[in-house]
Amino acid sequence: MFRDDDVCDLIQIDLVRVSAIRSALTAPGSVQALADTFSALGDPTRVRILDALSHGELCVCDLAAVLRLSQSAVSHQLRLLRGLRLVRPRRDGRVVFYSLDDQHIMAIFRQTLQHVEEGQKQGAGKREAGDGGPKPRASAHAKAAGGRRR
How many angstroms separate the CA atoms of 33 and 68, rounded? Predict the structure, then answer.
């Protein structure tokens, strides 16, 4: 549902800026791969697997024990994570060990966790102060129109 401040009050398109930004956008194939990665990270079990693997390489049995899940459930999730190149397997005889594919995965995990924890701290502070959230700001278009709102 749109609020009054979700849309521009004044339609004034900056064609130079729009053109520059369009030419700088991520390629469609990369956008799809990025969306697939974020979709995979949208599952709490997969996030827990990545969290566990951030502490080091684990075999499927140990990973299942750490997460208190069945080996079958863990293997199913690892197959999906492996397909997205988020984790990589290493076979040692009859045992398969998994680790994060590279440090980019750890960086994504840490930055997203930091973002979430900052939001939780800010939310707790607002609840304590009785603040209902951010105050609406006038958009650049609204300011150009003299700050008028419908």
Answer: 30
